[in-house]
Design a protein that fits this description.
Length: 253
């Protein structure tokens, strides 16, 4: 299992992927986000699913890009179309043998970037069959892998108008909620950002100890916020008088 998250806001794009790889009882780590292209004409690809399918699809995509003799794709639509062509070729070659070995052809991908002829950044979710959907302003994120645990905080707190600094925090909290609730997702994490106005990419990698302050702050304050939440009608019938705690909503967190 894995957890990959792509966010698009007014400021640009954010990508986050965990680095845990599980195989039976074995644990290892590997990078699940790949930057393609060079210079300003770059885009990221994040994947979940069989590693062998992912590596072969990316190898075919790199071969296609080399055939272009240094010329990048003109738009992100061209890039995602090239990726799906490679994915379908791998499916034709490998799906039957994989399924005979009881392995699912289950590669999902999030692809995001802004190329020379794009008016703005774009981000797509590609399914194993090669079809895709595009992120929009109403739901400004896409996730693949173990998606259930990190979804609530994004649905509640993230919008297209969220600034990049806050969106990065929400991306981390979404991952941390997933990591906390499943053993198949964990550190290290890779994070990338694309600032639309400057048309610049940034990326970094973080391990467990790098984010201890943020993790401890969240654990401490989410408990405190629950304590300060106004009591519901249940307190009158379900909590004995001796156990009731006065709530002070004006206390600083």
């Amino acid at each position: 299992m894995t957890y990959c998250l792509g966010i698009k806001t007014r400021d640009g794009l954010i990508g986050l992927s965990d680095g845990r790889i599980t195989s039976g009882s074995q644990l290892s780590s590997a990078r699940k986000v790949t930057m393609m292209g060079s210079g300003g004409d770059r885009f990221f690809i994040m994947n979940s699913g069989l590693r062998s399918v992912r590596d072969k699809t990316l190898a075919y995509l790199r071969r296609d890009m080399l055939k272009r003799r240094g010329e990048s794709y003109s738009t992100m639509l061209d890039a995602v179309s090239a990726f799906t062509t490679c994915l379908r070729q791998v499916a034709t070659e490998d799906r039957e043998s994989l399924e005979a070995s009881k392995l699912a052809f289950n590669l999902h991908a999030i692809i995001g970037g802004q190329l020379a002829e794009d008016r703005e950044p774009y981000m797509f979710l590609v399914y194993p069959e090669g079809n895709w959907i595009e992120v929009d302003e109403r739901t400004p994120y896409l996730s693949i892998g173990a998606t259930a645990y990190g979804k609530p905080i994004l649905d509640r707190a993230l919008s297209y108008g969220t600034d990049m600094q806050t969106a990065l925090k929400l991306a981390y909290l979404s991952f941390d909620s997933t990591r906390f609730s499943t053993n198949d997702v964990g550190f290290p994490i890779d994070m990338v950002s694309y600032h639309a106005d400057q048309r610049t990419w940034r990326q970094s990698n973080y391990d467990y100890d790098d984010l201890s302050e943020q993790r401890q702050w969240w654990n401490r304050n989410i408990t405190e916020l629950a304590r300060r939440m106004p009591d519901g009608p249940w307190v009158e019938t379900l909590v004995p008088d001796a156990l009731r705690i006065p709530v002070r909503s004006d206390e600083p967190v």
